[in-house]
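quick q for whoever's on today - can somebody do inverse folding on this one?? i tried earlier but teh output was garbage lol. tokens:
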């Protein structure tokens, strides 16, 4: 059906990405998804497996997307990996892996799509995190990767003013997924059963909020409640008070 809209979601095998695929499929969009695992979920009409830490895999994924699905109306660059370790115990190879997926992949995928746009509008949503907005112990590498992504997108948004292309950033707060279990620790292994409970917004609520964001003209969207928004304002206005309150939290 020529009028069917198309979305490509990275990190669509589970968590927020899978929730997004389910939401857009319900809306009647054709959904294409990518992640490392060879088979995708039923929520993705087309599955393009790719390890997005690898530049050659990103190129292959974009080629496969354009060959098999056609030009996407919306691209959500969502694949991401957490890292939980003090700075002193962070192995350089783990920091590189985090930056390869959380920063280099969305940047490179956007460039690859832009190079193939041929006059067609490109609409990208980059999934960052509220962790990009303030420092927390054991999260330096993850937060830095998301902060780099956010500021890169903010810069690109300036470059794209007056062009048909659009980039937006969403900053989820806590969303109930297995992200903590998948996060890597100072030994380079996934936390798995060592992970603490991670409960917040449902993936369904998050997917609805991303879809609303995509329909709005605003560049940046914080997907969290009023207390988190207030805390971020406090961080910007009075960081010393913000951090003294944060340190009192258990
Ligand atoms: N959950 C939260 O509280 C939260 C808060 C703020 C921001 N975020 C951000 O939201 C995004 C999604 O998080 P989530 O909670 O849904 O995490 P998740 O449940 O751990 O899902 C991560 C997704 O990324 C894929 N992925 C991991 N490594 C990959 C690689 N090398 N190449 C391609 N795909 C890869 C995973 O699939 P495979 O394992 O099959 O590759 C999976 O589909 C991330 O960018 C995360 O940083 C999450």
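ok took a stab at it. sequence:
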């Amino acid at each position: 059906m020529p009028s069917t809209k198309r979305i490509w979601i990275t990190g669509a095998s589970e968590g927020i990405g899978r929730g997004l695929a389910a939401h857009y499929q319900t809306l009647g969009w054709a959904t294409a998804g990518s992640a490392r695992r060879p088979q995708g979920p039923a929520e993705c009409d087309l599955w393009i497996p790719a390890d997005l830490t690898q530049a050659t895999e990103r190129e292959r994924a974009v080629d496969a997307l354009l060959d098999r699905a056609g030009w996407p109306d919306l691209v959500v660059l969502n694949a991401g990996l957490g890292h939980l370790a003090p700075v002193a115990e962070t192995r350089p190879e783990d920091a590189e892996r985090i930056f390869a997926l959380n920063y280099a992949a969305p940047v490179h995928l956007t460039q690859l799509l832009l190079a193939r746009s041929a006059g067609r509008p490109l609409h990208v949503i980059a999934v960052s995190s509220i962790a990009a907005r303030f420092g927390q112990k054991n999260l330096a590498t993850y937060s830095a990767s998301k902060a780099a992504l956010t500021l890169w997108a903010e810069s690109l948004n300036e470059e794209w003013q007056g062009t048909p292309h659009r980039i937006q950033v969403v900053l989820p707060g806590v969303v109930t997924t297995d992200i903590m279990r998948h996060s890597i620790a100072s030994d380079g292994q996934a936390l798995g059963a060592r992970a603490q409970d991670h409960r917040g917004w449902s993936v369904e609520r998050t997917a609805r909020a991303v879809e609303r964001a995509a329909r709005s003209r605003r560049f940046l969207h914080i997907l969290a409640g009023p207390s988190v928004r207030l805390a971020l304002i406090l961080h910007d206005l009075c960081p010393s008070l913000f951090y003294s309150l944060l340190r009192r939290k258990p």
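fwiw The domain at 6-225 is CATH 3.40.50.720 (Rossmann fold). also The two ends are 54 Å apart (CA to CA). so keep that in mind when u check it
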